[in-house]
Write a structure and sequence with these properties.
CATH architecture of the largest domain: 3-Layer(aba) Sandwich
CATH superfamily of the largest domain: P-loop containing nucleotide triphosphate hydrolases
Distance between the termini: 12 Å
Shape: elongated
Helix content: 40-55%
Length: 235
């Protein structure tokens, strides 16, 4: 998603840089393209609207329009605002012991893939992460996590095929973790097509049991919502 957004924005910025002079019509045209690119990247409509308003206000400033390189100045404004919008000032993850990260969200929101991406990032940073399969509702999710873990060379705990109690599965994973020398556990949990009470209670019980340092929420996919939403990311 973000690589496609980046490609589109680069094209828009390239055109802006090519203008020797900048007018309000130039800026409006660029902002229309940026707004569309953000919405296509699942950024919430109201978030995109406020972003565009902030950029336009700064871009129409006298100092920018009278600059020798107004196109470059506007691109800098875009970059600064995009960094803030996409989490450029986000606080780092709390990785203190016992190093537990809980991944939650609805079906199709990218929990399993995001868990693996996070594990890969932490491994590159010198940590020793492990992936814990806690989605007991979908065997395919467990298989997917095991496959991803193998691809990035990160250990994966898979529960007994007959296990139906997520808290018991998590407890077994912690015992396995102690033997394996892992220092960060990433728990991939079950989702539903819609939020329901059973899911909420299951996740609450698991969170109370694990007491994770971080709980990261993946948002519902764009095809299942009326308005696009900004998906939080660590990458």
């Amino acid at each position: 998603m973000f690589s496609q957004l980046g490609d589109k924005l680069q094209d828009i910025f390239k055109e802006l840089r090519g203008h020797g002079t900048i007018s309000e019509s130039n800026i409006d045209a660029a902002l229309r393209h940026v707004r569309l690119a953000l919405l296509e990247a699942d950024v919430d409509f109201q978030v995109a609207k406020k972003f565009i308003a902030r950029v336009k206000e700064k871009a129409l400033g006298e100092a920018v329009l009278r600059s020798i390189t107004p196109g470059q100045q506007i691109v800098k404004i875009f970059h600064a605002e995009l960094s803030a919008l996409l989490g450029g000032d986000a606080a780092p993850l709390n990785l203190e012991k016992p190093g537990r990260i809980l991944i939650v969200g609805l079906n199709g929101s990218g929990k399993t893939t995001s868990s693996a991406k996070l594990a890969r990032l932490l491994k590159k940073q010198g940590h020793a992460p492990a992936l814990i399969a806690c989605d007991l509702q979908r065997p395919a999710a467990i298989e997917q996590l095991a496959t991803l873990g193998k691809q990035i060379d990160v250990p994966v705990y898979t529960p007994d095929p007959n296990e139906k109690n997520v808290q018991r599965a998590a407890a077994a994973a912690l015992e396995w973790h102690d033997r394996d020398g892992v220092n960060i556990d990433i728990f991939d949990t079950a989702g539903r097509q819609e939020i329901d009470e059973a899911l909420i209670q299951e996740l609450k019980a698991l969170k109370d049991f694990l007491r994770p340092q971080e709980t990261l929420s993946m948002r519902q996919p764009a095809s299942k919502r009326s308005a696009s939403q900004l998906v939080s990311t660590m990458f």
